[in-house]
């Protein structure tokens, strides 16, 4: 039986796509093995969101060929879509982008039989939503469902609209069918994800709220992936609150707390709009966790603009920050902006934001002590304790059983992990 090893670079959507391709290849007769082991075929799902992503992807492909010269390599994902020729390095037999992943087994077979390189990328202009299925999910308690592909926001720092193509959505009937399948497989929570999740249904006449309703009808808990602030209207927040299973943890992408920087980023909201989105969610989900992404050192960012961002994330009382130093990406408008920030300044600003984020997270977690939370337990240790996550995504440890959802009383925390007692 031939063996295959896979590696994902980049986002959670990429992780989903990788697992879907691995399952298809295993159905075709391949045996999946750890990436560190020798394999007949290596599949690398590449990332091109930044120049660093390009470099990591190409470096990994070159290393694979150097260490496993007789193995075939499949270069998949965003960098392959962006430039199939760039990933056409020694050892690579197939470039497959962000469509035709469902054909990965037959395309690989053709490439190996003909001893030729196959470029399976192509135009995404009229591409349909490619429905991929993933049966295995970490922990057997929480499953991810990709329901949307593509983006048309064209933020000045981002190449993804050019790589992932236009907005495409899973048909609402397929959303329901997939949720039923996952529920029957025993999953208690489904995480809805996409490249620009808030755009779900724009091409099909449905809405994200419609999709959430369908999934809530099938499983006890539904968690949303990253949302745009403008999507968190009062109508949307109210609609979500009427669904019992929605997890009150919302990732609202921010990127900067300075209105002038947001404008240069071509984001379609300002800080007032972001705060309004937070207020909408907190109105209908008191105590909800709002998390975000922030870019440090965007071109032209002054000390005053940076300090405005620091002050804003404090004002918004966010529960967690994911901080990224700005990384130049050729082909984007931001790459052509003057006043690029030096690496030392970007590092210093990122470190300060991380420090603020750690403090905000600690405050949020400490506020949970004494509260009652619903926890989906996922793993257990030899002492009879289980760990899982609350609906607000607090890590919780208690005398529980993996796979069960329990109401607990949070009794303490070390700032990262909460201790709790099961409520009878």
Put the structure in a nutshell.
Helices cover 33% and strands 24% of the residues. The chain has helices spanning 12-27, 51-67, 78-82, 104-114, 160-164, 172-184, 208-216, 234-241, 259-264, 271-284, 303-315, 343-367; strands at residues 3-8, 31-32, 41-46, 72-77, 92-96, 118-119, 142-149, 168-169, 189-194, 221-224, 226-227, 249-252, 289-296, 320-325, 372-380, 386-390, 395-398, 405-413, 417-422.
Question: What does this 3D model show about the protein?
Answer:
With 424 residues, the chain is α/β, with parallel strands linked by helices. The protein folds into three domains: 117 residues, Methylthiotransferase, N-terminal domain (Rossmann fold), CATH 3.40.50; 229 residues, pyruvate-formate lyase- activating enzyme; 51 residues, OB fold (Dihydrolipoamide Acetyltransferase, E2P) (Beta Barrel), CATH 2.40.50. The strands form four sheets. A six-stranded parallel sheet has the order 2-1-3-4-5-6, with helices on both faces. β3, α2 and β4 form a beta-alpha-beta unit. It is globular and about 65 Å long.
């Amino acid at each position: 039986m031939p063996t295959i090893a896979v590696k994902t670079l980049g986002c959670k959507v990429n992780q989903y796509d990788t697992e879907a391709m691995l399952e298809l290849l295993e159905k075709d007769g391949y045996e999946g093995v750890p990436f560190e082991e020798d394999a007949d075929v290596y599949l690398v799902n590449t990332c091109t969101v930044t120049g660093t992503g390009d470099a990591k992807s190409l470096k990994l492909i070159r290393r694979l060929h150097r260490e496993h010269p007789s193995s075939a390599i499949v270069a998949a994902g965003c960098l392959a879509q962006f430039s199939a020729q760039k990933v056409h390095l020694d050892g690579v037999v197939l470039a497959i982008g962000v469509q035709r992943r469902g054909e990965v087994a037959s395309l690989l077979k053709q490439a190996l039989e003909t001893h030729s390189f196959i470029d399976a990328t192509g135009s995404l202009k009229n591409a349909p939503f490619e429905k991929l299925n993933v049966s295995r999910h970490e922990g057997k308690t929480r499953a991810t469902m990709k329901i949307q592909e593509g983006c048309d926001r064209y933020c000045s720092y981002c190449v993804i609209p050019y790589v992932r193509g236009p907005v495409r959505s899973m048909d609402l009937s397929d959303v329901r069918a997939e949720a039923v399948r996952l529920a029957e497989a025993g999953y208690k929570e489904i995480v809805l994800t996409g490249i620009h999740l808030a755009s779900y249904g724009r091409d099909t006449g449905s809405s994200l709220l419609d999709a959430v309703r369908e999934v809530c009808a099938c499983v006890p808990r539904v968690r949303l992936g990253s949302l745009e602030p403008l999507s968190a209207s009062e109508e949307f927040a109210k609609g979500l609150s009427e669904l019992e299973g929605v997890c009150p943890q919302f990732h609202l992408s921010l990127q900067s707390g300075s209105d002038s920087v947001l404008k240069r980023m071509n984001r379609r909201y300002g800080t007032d709009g972001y705060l309004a989105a937070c207020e909408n969610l907190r109105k209908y989900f008191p105590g909800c966790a709002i998390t975000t992404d922030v870019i440090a050192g965007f071109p032209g960012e002054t000390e005053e603009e940076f300090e405005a961002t620091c002050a804003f994330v404090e004002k918004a009382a966010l529960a967690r920050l994911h901080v990224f130093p700005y990384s130049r990406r050729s082909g984007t408008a931001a790459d052509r902006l003057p006043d690029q920030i030096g690496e030392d300044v970007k590092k210093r600003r990122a470190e300060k934001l991380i420090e603020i984020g750690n403090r905000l997270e600690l405050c949020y977690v400490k506020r949970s002590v004494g509260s009652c939370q619903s926890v989906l337990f996922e793993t257990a240790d030899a002492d009879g304790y289980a760990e899982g996550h609350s609906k607000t995504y607090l890590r919780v440890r208690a005398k529980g059983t993996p796979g069960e959802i329990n109401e607990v009383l949070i009794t303490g925390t070390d700032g990262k992990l909460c201790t709790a007692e099961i409520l009878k």
